[in-house]
Design brief:
mainly alpha; 15 helices; 0% strand
């Protein structure tokens, strides 16, 4: 498979966006205003980027047939970290609540994490559904079908899903609302559409690329949409999560624009390094945020200094942990495998 440099850029952006989004959760404990709202706008793209890449990369690499053991490998390197980190986070919450005089049953708390996916690792469940979906896509030979109409339909389905769920006040246990695939279908089909008309794809044909892709990829479209978001933010209208109706057109415009503008730009070493540690950063950063906050919160530091220390210590902790656990195969399976990205 040829390296798609744009994916290195997107993965690094997505990793940093998720990291900063949760950093803002810590900062919002001390300050919450329009400035922090504006800062969250580009960060909501982090989780969708991870899920989009999970399909795009496999579609480019495997095209019409995935290798034997495809699902088994995904279970080992995706679901095992889900249970390992889920146990760490659930146990930490159980111990914390007992220490604070708000005891909770250990097993009930574990069910909230493991069964109801009530922690930030819920995205691994969605990714696993995408892997199974792509396996079915190849087994049923669905690559014979034009993905474009399905992409537009999936956008409508995902927007209707989030809109209806919030309008009706649907609130199942944990993050079950979030892990349902209906809210993320647009990412699966967007990846298939881009691969179909991507120059490096095995059957890609740039000449037949739909005109709407060219028009929507223009930076002006993304700029106008972001301007509208800023106006809406001034009116305190949007909620800033990746599970919102407005995120769907935002992500589509962003991805089309980014893949067009980044074409031909080789990712520098710092971008590649973030790619190497990205999976570990996704999983471990809240753990370091909490530990660091316990140490520096009593110091009553200026908010900017507090945020910088939190970011530096937590990012360093994630990278060191990733290096340590990846010294063995079982460690990488349990705590997040480093990506094999060549550093120039």
């Amino acid at each position: 498979m040829q390296k798609v440099e744009e994916i290195f850029w997107l993965r690094a952006y997505g990793c940093i966006a998720v990291f900063l989004f949760h950093l803002m959760d810590q900062v919002n404990n001390y300050v919450d205003n329009l400035v922090t709202d504006f800062m969250r706008i580009p960060m909501v793209l982090g989780t969708p980027i991870f899920l989009f890449i999970s399909v795009f990369v496999f579609a480019v690499r495997y095209d019409k047939a995935v290798p034997d053991g495809f699902i088994r490998q995904r279970v080992k390197y995706v679901m095992l970290p889900y249970f390992v980190y889920g146990f760490i986070y659930s146990t930490a919450e159980w111990a914390t609540r007992w220490a604070e005089g708000d005891p909770v049953n250990f097993w009930a708390n574990a069910v909230e994490y493991f069964v109801y996916a009530g922690w930030h690792g819920y995205f691994l469940i969605i990714a696993m559904q995408f892997y199974v979906g792509y396996w079915l896509f190849t087994r049923l030979r669905l690559w014979r079908v034009n993905p474009v109409p399905w992409f537009w339909l999936s956008c409508l389905i995902s927007m209707a899903y989030w809109g209806t769920a919030y309008w009706q006040g649907v609130d199942p246990p944990g993050y079950l609302l979030w892990v349902a695939p209906l809210g993320w279908l647009y990412l699966f089909f967007l990846a298939l559409v881009l691969v179909r008309y991507y120059p490096l794809a095995p059957d890609g044909d740039k000449a037949q690329r739909p005109m709407w892709m060219k028009y929507l990829a223009h930076p002006a479209c993304l700029g106008l949409f972001v301007l509208g978001l800023c106006v809406a933010t001034l009116a305190h209208l949007p909620e800033f999560t990746s599970k919102e109706v407005w995120v769907i057109p935002f992500f589509v415009l962003f991805t089309l624009c980014a893949t067009r503008q980044l074409k031909g730009y080789t990712a520098p070493n710092w971008v590649r390094q973030i790619n190497v540690y990205s999976f570990g950063i996704y999983l471990a950063h809240p753990m370091f945020f909490i530990a660091t906050d316990l140490l520096i919160a009593p110091l009553s530091l200026p908010i900017v200094v507090y945020a910088v220390i939190l970011a530096l210590v937590s990012m360093t902790g994630c990278i060191v942990l990733s290096k340590v656990v990846n010294t063995s195969r079982i460690g990488s399976m349990m705590f997040g495998k480093q990506l094999n990205v060549a550093v120039r």
